[in-house]
Please model this.
Amino acid sequence: MTGFADPRAEANALFPDGTDARVLEPSPPAALDARWMADDPTDPAGAAGGLVTPIPGEGTTWAELADADDHVAAFAADHWLDGVRAVPDFPDGHETTRRSLHEVAFFALSPRRYQVTGKMGLRYTHGGFGTPFFRAGTGDDEQIRVEGDHLVRQVGPTVAREAITTPREAARFVGTEFQSRWFEGFNDELSPHPDRVLDVDEAASEAIGHWFGFATHVLELARRTPGAEDVSRVQLWPEHFDVAFEMGSSERARRASYGASPGDDSHPEPYFYVAAWGSIDRSDPYWNDNGFNGGSLTYRELREADDPYSTALAFLADGHRRLTT
Model:
């Protein structure tokens, strides 16, 4: 997790020639399609051979192949591709790390990508989160990401690492200057203290990264909802520090954000949510969250579920059904 990252190439190396694997993480080369704010690493389009994918129905799944090969099984589990791994454990005190990583995402990673591409979306990366690959003036593929208590900057074949210290130093390391307001469309989600020392526990950071991996797989499945309208891509939003996508017609008041958060000021533990863009019937117990206009599925409920993937997917599907029928 400390060297050069190319998740799709690493995945393809597990299989014979003629196999084309899909993962949940961005991989080089940089995606230059200007229509989207985030990459789509699971997109089956352009497969050069037999497709291996985390998405049932779009090719041979990682879970199917993992049953017959221990190396495939280990890679799939480590990268949240098999759909069977348990919900990650969170150590005590992870809230402090979450708040610190939120500042790293908001004041360093996303502004750097936005500076170069005009896009701010982040993605789950192995053990953490980071930018999709992009291209700056050198023409090299670049990615900046969090791994544990370190920042990693990968430019072409060169990989540099630095311990997370302050928001100002994080911005400097990734190649930009600290700005408290770098995008006018955001509300003041965070109070900027550029030289405050950030407290990032390595184990808590890795747990948050694992949560984003679990959530990204669930959301990639959910965005394939049959008949869904106007479906966006999954991305990690820097202002809220959650991973989400949108679907449903806004013109017919059916649109909502479907996402997962590692926690926030109103929710000390991680949760999945459906946040409706229009009115909801608060007499329906599904719409149970008073922190926003929607419903939430708690971390405790996921931990107690026999199959957390199915439980999370059923919760998201339930919200979509309520909004569209």
